[in-house]
Every structure is written in structure tokens, then in C-alpha cells.
Specification:
heterodimer, A: about 400 residues, alpha/beta, five-stranded mixed β-sheet, B: about 260 residues
Chain lengths: ~400, ~260
């Protein structure tokens, strides 16, 4: 209530009200056909007045008019201690509420500064009434808007991929245009800096697979086949997939957020005005860097995943490291390794294109950056898994 | 409880020192803003004006010195204790700082929703009045900040700053980035608001036109110190070399001559 005290002290000129103790909520008292406004008519003290204005007219007032016609009701504002725009607005609404119930209201007795404020609000009220609220769309319209937006975004994604492809071809034709520095920087941030987290997760995954397999294999005395299990699962499927998902969460989101923020601060437009195509500067280095970094990360993940399996095999199945590696040579073919590594560049393309595309889709505000970043992660993980499924079908079909 | 005098002082800054690492931002700043006046803090870029503003609105703490707002010491005040004070002032940030996810009308209504028990309909109406008061068309209320021009965004930010009918209004570079016509409109608007709502206004600016036309008193800041304080008339006759340089530059002269015409 501290806030209101000085408000009263300032707006109410009589020295008696300077006392901080006298802060009363705004109220309306009825005296015959006169409504006397009392108390502090400032925004923090208006709840009672709002209820009066929004509610039905009081019974006392309904009795007041004669049968002949609208009666005059005086709204006496002389006892208002302090008035602000919200209070003045409610005074105006009081007059309107009286008119609704067939009475004529007139505000009287206001202090000069208060009536100036009321006049100003009256004047502004005429302007505010011009505003027409937009109709809210119904369910069918919303569905339509949604479908249309999704379709358009799909088309824009295709256009974006096309633009990136053209920029890439232009760079190939003119290798001097390739920006090596951002490529190297991105290899470091997306690849090297991701080593600890990727390594840890894949190592744990190797342990989990070996552990799950161990109880089954032990039952048949086929302990040594844990090497087949871990090796094939990690190299063919899990390490490329896990690595791609980690990188999508780490780097794909960063791409979207970076480009999105640059869009909000008009840096993207600034690049264009100084004659640097944004795609060449912002997208291609990321695409190239990730296409290099992700397969390398996958190899690293292969190694750590298998090491995780080896550790588990020794402690649970009594398969020593040497036996494990020995068996691995027979279990794995070169093609198994290459199948896993071969997927990585495709995943890299998906992650970087989706991340950058969503970054460019940012419009206007900070919330849009957050939304687009989320969308980029969800979409790129989704597409990575879809692509992985397609790879499985194709490899199966080709018999690899 | 307040200092004696005709008008009590709303802001009292005494000997404030601020450092960021090795960089000294304020080396003993003192000033006083009295009730009902339009006070401007002027000075070149990087002289510490904006930092002082941030200290006044409790976003930053000085290393030493005293800042009294409405007669209450605020240095070292916690968020909880600062709340009643914060409700007594409105702040318009340089770039508006409107919430991008809300429409202009919702932006203006936000402080009302947060700090009063009024109903939604009434809040929307009060917001519409504030929007109209700052000279925006009614259609602006339903728009998002990203759909507005720079000048409109500033007006919308001003509407939000006066949403709770504050006693004190802080304006950070109110005319920066506006075209001359909009800036002139803003001059008039600030004056009008002060007269209508009886506000005390503290603004940070280096817009000479605004200083000449609107400010009652001006403090001129140079390298973390107040080099001069007074009306523009007094400052323009100051002997302080830095102040002279500022006012005697070609733009300073132009603004001064301009200031005499329209009144």
C-alpha cells in the first residue's frame, strides 16, 4: 500500500490529506439523487467502482426516476482525494451506466485538475471506440491455416535446399569463395567439443547392450558372441544414430538460435547489404563442417561403444579383451563399418540444413527464436530417424 | 520526512561512485530531481548516463554513495522491498523493450493485470485510453510490436510505462532513432503528459531539441561527473569547457535558435 500513499499525497492538494494514514479505497455513496464519490480514485483502489459500473443499477437509483422521463443524477466528485486516468475512465463509465438504466448523469464538483483529466479521457474515449477487435477464427479456419502454413513451410524448405545447393555449386566452381575459417571453427565446436558427451553416452550404450545380451548369451554358453552383438549394433546402427541425435541437440539448435538471433537484429540483412550472401557465410560452412565432423565423431563413437561392450563382457561374461577383439575380426565386415559411417554425412546434411532453415524462418521477436530452435531440434531428430529407417530398408534390399 | 523546500525532491543522488572492473563510470555524481519537473540528463555517449539511469531504477548497484527515491534510500534494497517503489515509476527503455509475444494492448495491460484486481474488460479499456493518449491509432492495440514502426514502438513503450499512472516516469533516449517529425511529436507528447498527469519526468537524452524545448532542468554529464546543472539558459552560458563545446557545436546552436521560434 506504500505505493498509494504518496500518490494520494501528491495528487490531493489539501494539506490534511498529506497524512499517509488517510488512504481509502474509492467508493460511491448515495444521497437522494446524488452519487457522491469518495476516496482515492487511483488504479490500485478501484475494484469497488468497477463492480458498481459493471453490475446492475442499484435499486435505490431505479426508484429515483419519475415516470415522466429520465431523471437527472448528479455525480458529485468534490470528495475525490486523488484521481488518475483509470479513475477518470470509470467516472465516464458511471455516466454511461446511468444512461443504460434510463437516467441522465452529470459529473459535478470536480477539482480543476481532475476535470481536466476527465476531459482528456472523454476526448480519448472517442478515439478508442474506433478500434474493432479482430474476429477469432473457428476450428475449420484454424485447421486450414495450419495446413496452409505447413504446406508453405515445406515449399520454403525445398526452396532453401535449392538455394544451398546453388551456393555450394558456386563455391565449388570458385574455390576462392570457400570460407575456411568458419569451417574450421565449426568443426571444432560441432565436432571436437562434442567428444566428451558423445563418448560418454556411446560408452554407456555399449555397456547397456552387452549387459542386456549377457544374460541371454550365458544361457546358451555363447558368451563370445557378445562381440558380434555389440560390434554389429554399435557400428551399423547405434553409434551413427546416437551421435546424430546428440549433434542435432547440440549444434542444430545452436545453428537455429544463432541465425535466428541474427535475423532479429537484422545482421542477416546487413550481410546481404555488404555483398556477402548469407547462405555462403552462414550455412555452407556449417554444412561442410558438420559433413566432415559427424563421420569422424561416428568413428570415435564406434570405438568407445565397443570399448563399453568389452568392459561389460569381461566383468559379466568372462570374455577377455583379447578374445573379444579376436572375435570382432570375424564378426564384422568392412561393409558394416562403412554402412554406419556412410549414414553420417546424410545425417549431417539433415541437421545443418534444418537448423539453418529454421533459423532463417525466425520473424520478429525473441519468442520466435525459441520456437524455431525447438522446431529445428524436433524436426532434425525426426528426419534423422526416418532417414535411418530408409537406410535400413535400402541396405536390406541391396543385401549389404 | 522529505527535504524542506517548495517542492519535495523525488530523486536525490549523493556522491555515487560506480566502477566496472578498472573502468570508472561515475566519480562522485550528485543531483536532485524535484516533484513535477522534467529533468534531463545529457552528455556524450559513454559518459555514464545510462548507467545512472539503471541505478535509479534499481537494475544496478553503485559501489558507494546514496540514492534516495521518494525519500527512501534504495542502494542495497532487495527485490521484495523494491516492489512498492517500482510500482511508483514507469520506465521507457531506449528500444522499447516491448514483449514480442504480446500485442501492444496486452503489453500496456500487463502491469495492470499484475498489480491491480481490475477485470479484463476494464483493463483493456484503460490500455486503450493509454494507447490513445500516446497518439497511437486504436488499431495499433491489436498489433504485435514487430508489426510497428520504430516511432510507434516508442509510443507503445511509453503507453506501457504510464499504464499504472506512475508518479515518476523514466525515459531512456526517448527520441533516439526517430525522424525529426516524430521526434518533435514526442517533445509535445512528453510536455502534455507531464501537464495532464502531473508527472515527474527523468530522461536521459542527447537530443538538443528535446533539451531546449521540454526539459525544465538539465544535468550535463562528462566522464562520470556532473559538469553542469541548471536550466538550458544557465547551461548555455556556463564556462565549463566541455559544456561549452557541446552547446556551441553547430547542432547546439541550431537547436537553440529553433527553440525560440515555436513557443
Amino acid at each position: 500500500m506504500d505505493g498509494a500513499n504518496s500518490e494520494t499525497a501528491r495528487r490531493a492538494t489539501p494539506p490534511s490529506t498529506q497524512d499517509a494514514a488517510i488512504v481509502t479505497d474509492a467508493a460511491i455513496e448515495l444521497h437522494g439523487t446524488e452519487l457522491r464519490c469518495v476516496g482515492t480514485w487511483t488504479v490500485a483502489h478501484l475494484v469497488a467502482i468497477e463492480r458498481w459500473v459493471e453490475g446492475p443499477p442499484t435499486t435505490a437509483l431505479e426508484r429515483a426516476p419519475d415516470e415522466q422521463g429520465p431523471a437527472e443524477v448528479t455525480i458529485d466528485g468534490s470528495a475525490i482525494l486523488a484521481l488518475d486516468t483509470a479513475g477518470a475512465w470509470l467516472l465516464r463509465r458511471m455516466v454511461a451506466a446511468l444512461e443504460r438504466s434510463g437516467l441522465r448523469g452529470a459529473v459535478a464538483g470536480l477539482r480543476p485538475e481532475h476535470s481536466a483529466l476527465l476531459e482528456m479521457v472523454e476526448e480519448l474515449a472517442i478515439q478508442t471506440e474506433l478500434g474493432v477487435p479482430l474476429p477469432t477464427p473457428n476450428a475449420v479456419a484454424r485447421l486450414g491455416q495450419h495446413v496452409w502454413a505447413s504446406g508453405r513451410q515445406g515449399a520454403e524448405l525445398l526452396a532453401f535446399i535449392g538455394e544451398v545447393a546453388i551456393a555450394a555449386l558456386r563455391s565449388l566452381a570458385q574455390p576462392s569463395r570457400i570460407r575456411w575459417r568458419p569451417i574450421l571453427y565449426n568443426i571444432r565446436t560441432a565436432g571436437f567439443d562434442a567428444l566428451p558427451i558423445t563418448g560418454l553416452l556411446v560408452f554407456l550404450m555399449g555397456i547397456v547392450i552387452a549387459y542386456q545380451g549377457a544374460s541371454q548369451l550365458r544361457r546358451y554358453g555363447a558368451n563370445i558372441f557378445v562381440a558380434d552383438l555389440v560390434g554389429l549394433a554399435m557400428l551399423r546402427e547405434l553409434s551413427p544414430l546416437l551421435t546424430a541425435i546428440i549433434v542435432a541437440g547440440r549444434s542444430g539448435s545452436a545453428y537455429a538460435a544463432q541465425i535466428g538471433t541474427m535475423k532479429v537484429t537484422e545482421e542477416v540483412e546487413a550481410l546481404r547489404t555488404v555483398g556477402i550472401p548469407p547462405i555462403e557465410q552462414l550455412v555452407l560452412p556449417k554444412l561442410v563442417a558438420l559433413t566432415i565432423a559427424l563421420p569422424l565423431l561416428t568413428v570415435y563413437a564406434d570405438v568407445l561403444g565397443v570399448v563399453g561392450g568389452m568392459v561389460m563382457a569381461r566383468s559379466e561374461l568372462d570374455v577377455g579383451f583379447a578374445d573379444f577383439i579376436d572375435r570382432l575380426q570375424y564378426a564384422l565386415l568392412m561393409s558394416d563399418f562403412l554402412v554406419g559411417i556412410g549414414k553420417a554425412p546424410v545425417f549431417a546434411g539433415i541437421i545443418s540444413v534444418i537448423g539453418c532453415f529454421q533459423g532463417f524462418q525466425v520473424a520478429g521477436d525473441a519468442e520466435s527464436v525459441g520456437r524455431r530452435t525447438t522446431v529445428s531440434v524436433v524436426q532434425s531428430i525426426f528426419l534423422v530417424i526416418v532417414a535411418d529407417a530408409l537406410f535400413s530398408v535400402v541396405f536390406n534390399w541391396l543385401g549389404i | 520526512m522529505e527535504t524542506a523546500g517548495v517542492k519535495k525532491s523525488i530523486i536525490e543522488v549523493r556522491d555515487v561512485h560506480t566502477r566496472f572492473g578498472d573502468a570508472i563510470v561515475h566519480a562522485g555524481v550528485s543531483l536532485e530531481v524535484r516533484e513535477g519537473e522534467i529533468f534531463a540528463l545529457a552528455g556524450g555517449s559513454g559518459c555514464g548516463k545510462s548507467t545512472l539511469l539503471r541505478e535509479l531504477i534499481l537494475l544496478q548497484k553503485p559501489q558507494s554513495g546514496s540514492i534516495r527515491m521518494f525519500g527512501r534510500e534504495v542502494v542495497g534494497l532487495g527485490d521484495e522491498q523494491a516492489l512498492p517503489l517500482r510500482r511508483k515509476w514507469g520506465v521507457m527503455f531506449e528500444r522499447g523493450a516491448l514483449f514480442g509475444s504480446l500485442t501492444v494492448s496486452e503489453n500496456v495491460g500487463l502491469p495492470l493485470r499484475e498489480h491491480t484486481l481490475l477485470g479484463d474488460r476494464l483493463i483493456d479499456e484503460i490500455a486503450a485510453v493509454k494507447i490513445a493518449l500516446t497518439g497511437l491509432p486504436p488499431s495499433a492495440g491489436a498489433k504485435y510490436p514487430s508489426e510497428l514502426s520504430g516511432g510507434m514502438r516508442k509510443r507503445a513503450a511509453l503507453a506501457r510505462a504510464i499504464a499504472l499512472d506512475p508518479d515518476l516516469l523514466f525515459l531512456d533516449e526517448p527520441t533516439a532513432g526517430l525522424d525529426p517529425l516524430s521526434a518533435a511529436g514526442f517533445d509535445v507528447l512528453v510536455r502534455r503528459l507531464q501537464e495532464l498527469l502531473g508527472l515527474t519526468i527523468f530522461m536521459v537524452t542527447h537530443d538538443l531539441d528535446l533539451l531546449w524545448r521540454v526539459a525544465d532542468r538539465v544535468a550535463f554529464m562528462v566522464a562520470g561527473r556532473i559538469a553542469g546543472i541548471g536550466t538550458m539558459q544557465e547551461l548555455s552560458t556556463s564556462q565549463e569547457p566541455m559544456v561549452r563545446e557541446y552547446f556551441d557545436g553547430p547542432r547546439g546552436r541550431g537547436a537553440r535558435e529553433q527553440a525560440w521560434k515555436p513557443r
